[in-house]
Write a structure and sequence with these properties.
The protein is α/β, with parallel strands linked by helices. The chain has one domain: UDP N-Acetylglucosamine Acyltransferase, domain 1, CATH 2.160.10.10. Helix content is 18%, strand content 30%. It has 3 helices and 20 strands. The strands form 4 sheets. It has a 7-stranded mixed sheet, with no helix packed on it. The longest helix has 19 residues. The protein starts with a strand and ends with a strand. The model has no long low-confidence stretch (mean pLDDT 95).
Length: 175
């Protein structure tokens, strides 16, 4: 896993950018038309061909998110993108999935500074993330893997693997 880096989400520029992005997400969620999706797509680092984002989408900044081609995000997905989130081609993201790159120090004295720790998340090609799954900071999910509904993924997932549970554990190889 990649080591986390410090990130201050309370800096004025980050707060301004987050507020503007939240407003764009609200507009899209009120009326998820192609026009609002086009406006939302301008936020992202990469917006793959035939990307579908359903209503209820939320992100903090957008510019650290890269979507591959033919990605489908079902309703109510949350991507907290203090660090990069890369989602490969043909990924299926179920409803109510959370992909998080932001964490806080466990040391209570350090936490008083209100600085975040951020670590990128990488999701490979042809990955299926089931409903309500949570992907934690620093996780890499390799190609052709499946994350069972409701799982909390705390560690990297190998290629062609099914994981399930809280914390997510290896269930079986796929294919």
């Amino acid at each position: 896993m990649v080591e986390p880096t410090l990130f201050n989400s309370l800096e004025p520029e980050n707060r301004r950018k987050r507020q503007a992005t939240h407003e764009m997400c609200r507009q899209f969620n009120r009326a998820p038309s192609k026009g609002h999706l086009k406006k939302l797509s301008c936020l992202f680092n990469k917006f793959g061909e035939h990307l579908i984002i359903e209503q209820g989408f939320h992100c903090d900044y957008g510019d650290k998110i890269s979507f591959g081609d033919r990605v489908f995000l079902n309703v109510n997905c949350t991507l907290l993108d203090g660090a990069e989130i890369n989602i490969g081609d043909d990924a299926l993201i179920g409803p109510n999935v959370q992909i998080l790159t932001v964490n806080h120090p466990t040391n209570s004295t350090v936490r008083l500074d209100k600085t975040n720790l951020v670590t990128p998340v990488i999701i490979g090609n042809n990955v299926w993330i089931g409903a309500g799954a949570i992907i934690l900071p620093g996780v890499s999910i390799a190609d052709d893997s499946v994350i069972a509904a409701g799982s909390v993924v705390t560690n990297n997932v190998a290629k062609n693997t099914l994981v399930a549970g809280n914390p997510a554990k290896f269930v079986k190889p796929l294919n």
